[in-house]
Amino acid sequence: MAVPGAGSPGRLVQYVVVRSDLVHALSWPLGAVITQACHAATAAIHLHYGDPDTQRYLAELDSMHKVVLAAPDEAALSGLSDRLSQAGVAHKLWVEQPENIPTCLALKPCPKEAVQPLLRKFKLFR
Question: What is the pTM of this model?
Answer without folding.
Answer: 0.90
